[in-house]
Sequence to fold (151 residues):
Amino acid sequence: MLIGILLAINIVVCLGLIGVVLLQRSEGGALGMGGGNTGFMTARGAGDLLTRITWILFSVFLFISLILTLLTGRMGGGSAIDRLKIDNLDTKSLNAPAPSTAPATQAPSTAQPGAIQAPTPQINGSLSGAPAATPAPTPAPAQAPAKAPAQ
Fold:
């Protein structure tokens, strides 16, 4: 329960941090801040305020992330690598080729394989999972009649 609440707060702080960073003035301009003194704050005052907010949100984000890491580490699960049971694996059997399942008495075929044809794509008519109606077969293209030789 506590981890879920801290994770939700951490996500909100992270989104706030992203927004504040995007509002800051950069060399090429920024999302919400224009150049000049025509706004309700001067550019320097807005920069100082956004810088302070950025540092505060960063500190809160870092602190909550550290607490989340410590709490989930003490839950007893260990790391994902610790849960893998790789101590009893035989490395020689991992690198060995897979055994053949074809019968040994069959002679290799010297005939060339036929042409491979892709299946006709099917479009489902509805999103509910009901089978779509089978499409009507497409007629073969008609051949153009041969031109009569010019006399």
